[in-house]
Design a protein that fits this description.
The chain has 273 residues and is α+β, with helices and mostly antiparallel strands. The chain has two domains: 8-171, Roll (2,3-Dihydroxybiphenyl 1,2-Dioxygenase, domain 1), CATH 3.10.180.10; 183-272, Immunoglobulin-like. Helices cover 17% and strands 35% of the residues. 33% of the residues are buried. It holds the Pfam family Glyoxalase_3.
Amino acid sequence: MAPSTNCLDHIIYLTPPGSVTETAEEFRQLGFNVLAGGQHEDGLTENSLVILGDGVYLELISFVKPLEAYPHGSPERSARENHRWAAKAPGWIDYAFLRYSSETVRIPDIINDRAVAGGDEVLYGDGTAGGRTRIDGQILKWIVTFPRLSAEGRRPPIPFFCEDVTPRDLRVPSLDTEHPCSVQGIAFLHLRVPLEKLDELARSFDYIIGRSSIHYEWQLSTDKSIAGHSCRLLLSVSDTKVLEISEVAFYVKDKPPADTIQTTYGKIRFVVL
């Protein structure tokens, strides 16, 4: 049996350089438990984590330093300038699915074969090694596979894939999943794109996730299920030229003071179980 290609792993929330501590405190004030993460092995970014009961986590991430902190012409400045998130505005910027592979099967190959069979270009390139060191010194290793750049030199807003080399429970510890705000897991991830990109992107999601029976809506799986409730990816038309994650919705047990809140850089919606 072919491995699942629709398992949501984590969602990334970017804030300005050096702001991880402040962002972690903001999410704590919203009722989320936040774990210290660590610095990525390239030394450019650092993070904190919010682990949810469904096994998905939020990665609260920022660059360690602003671009101007690196000398002109230095390798460090070049790496900072060319980082895949260097041009991203703060907010919900990216998301990852779990990647699996064996000696004979790799998820990117499955998806690329579907795209070619559908008359389109392949969606994913080769995987690259990544990792970070936790604040307790534990070294984490993984392989990430990113979408291929478009003709305009941009990455389409489809998920990248992450496969653990070290055990996943080191990267995603099942700690502090009982949050004061009673959040249980992800209800949906909502993307908005310009009208002229809508059908092209929908076709890509069909290749990645599988063809949906509901227009512009796809069912996702998670590492741990929430009985009777599904995780979804929603796609709708934006009134701007920006391709963006417009909001992330969470299942909660208790009715919150407000169904929708605006963080400093993003939108959150709560759905009562």
